[in-house]
Each structure stands twice: as structure tokens, then as C-alpha cells.
Predict the 3D structure of the following.
Amino acid sequence: QVQLVESGGGLVQPGGSLRLSCVASGSILSIYAMGWYRQAPGKQRELVAINSRLSTNYADSVKGRFTISRDNAKNTVYLQMNSLKPEDTGVYYCNWRVSTQERDYLEVWGQGMLVTVSS
């Protein structure tokens, strides 16, 4: 079983920065991709950033402001968010796609955490 624990969300003023972290625990054999999604009030969940073995991709709305990174030794993925805007407000979820001893492919979600950008 793989579990994800997120941290780093909260309230920040427009123009400010936050760094989100997501730590995985469990018997992970291989990581296919790590990513971050968000869901704004009244909207569907959307991809923010994803890092796989071959590429890193960002939503157009966050390009140049957000950076996804990973520390394999710590089983952690980060999302550095700079120049935050009110429209970045939402619940942020980390998402890992991995293989384990039991499953060749497993998609795991974090519990979600609120990021509020407001003055």
C-alpha cells in the first residue's frame, strides 16, 4: 500500500510564494510519474504540473511561475509556487503513478490541501 502525505498549503497574499510537499510511503518499486492537480471552487480538478521519466509539463496558467521538483532519496515531490494569483486558489492534490510488488500500475492521490491566495 502506498500513502501520500501533503504539506505546505495555507493562506498567502497575491504575489507571494508557497512550497507544497508530498511524501510517499510504502513499497514502491518504480515511479512512472509524480504530479500536482488542483480543484478550484465550482470547477473540475485540473492538472497543474507533472513530472515523468521523459518530460515535465505544466498547465499554461502556471508556466513560468510554478516549478515541480522531486527528491527520489526522500520519496518526495515539491511544487514551488511563485507570483501567486487569486485564481490559483483551490485544493491541491499530489498524484503518483507507481508500481509496487502487488501492482504493476497504481495511481495514488494525496488527501488534498487548501491554498488560498487573498489579500
